[in-house]
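Data availability (excerpt). The following record was deposited with the supplementary files.
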Amino acid sequence: MTTKMKAIVATRYGSPEVLQLQEVKKPQPKTNEVLIKIHATSVTASDVLIRGLNAPVIYKLIVQLAFGFGKPRNPILGMVVSGTITGKGKNVTKFNLGDEVFAYCSMSPTKHRFGSYAEYICLPQDWNLALKPTNISLEEAAAIPYGGLLAAHLMNKASIKKGDKVLVYGASGSIGTMALQMAKNAGATVTSVCSRKNFELVKSLGSDKVIDYTASNAASQLETYKYVIDAVGNSKSSVLKAKSKRAIDKQGKYLSIDHGTPRTPKAVLLKLKELVEQGKLKAVIDRVYSLAEMAEAHRYVEGGHKRGNVVILTA
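Predicted structure:
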C-alpha cells in the first residue's frame, strides 16, 4: 500500500507559480473520518485570493491570522471534493467503501479544512459530505458545492416569490449561475448581468432578460427589482453595478456575497444534491485542467472572466 501521494503545495503566498506539484505523505483517516480518492476539485475565487494575498492590508492580516503567516499553514489548498471512498475509520457508519461522494471542506468560518489539491483527503463523516448526485459525473459534481452553497447563502436572505423580479449581477460565474437557477426555481423573472459572450449560457439556465455590463446603455436597461443579487462582491465594480444597487422597490433588497459571513450547513449540501437529481440545478464547467496544470488554472481564474467553474482532475 502506497504511503505517498501527489499534491499541489503552496510554497508561500504569491503568484500562481508558488503552486508546486510535489509528492507528500498520504493522509490516514481518524476513527470518524473517511479517506477519499479525489477524482476532481475546483479552483475558486476564494482559492485565488488566499494564494495571492493580493488585497488591502487589513484583508491580508485577516487572511494570515486565519491561514498562516508568510505561507499557508496547510500548504495544500482547495476545499471542493468529488471522488470515491477508499478507506474509513472504525466509527464511520454513514458511508461505505466504493461510495462516490462530493464535499465542501467547510462547516463554518472556524471549522474548515484545506487539502483538495491532491490525490487523497480525509474528512469527518458528519461534515459537508454526501453521496454524489446520481445523474451527474464526478467531474460535474466538483462544480456544485462552492457556487451552490454560497448562492444558497444569498437566497436564504431573500424570500423570492413567484413573479418577483430579480437581477443577478455576475450571473455567469460559479455563484451567479447557481443563484440564477435558484431564483428561477422560486418562480422569479430573472435579469442576468454578464458579458455579451455569456448571454446564451445564462439564457440556457433560464434567464428571462440579459444586460451586457460593458454596453454604453446598460444602466438605461435597468428596471425596478424586488431583489438585486450581487454574486461577485467587492472584487468588481462598474457604473451599472452602482446604479443597480438603487434599482430596487420600496420592499426590495440588495444582497451581496460580501455581506455577512456565509453559512454552509450540511442540510444545504443535501438540498443541492436533491435539486441536481431533480434536474433543477445544472453544473456549469468552463475549463478542465490536470493537477500538474494548477498554476495555469489559477492564472485563468485570476483573470476574472471564467464561466461557471474551473475543474481540476487529479488522475
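Summary of structural features: The domain at 4-143+284-313 is CATH 3.90.180.10 (Quinone Oxidoreductase; Chain A, domain 1).
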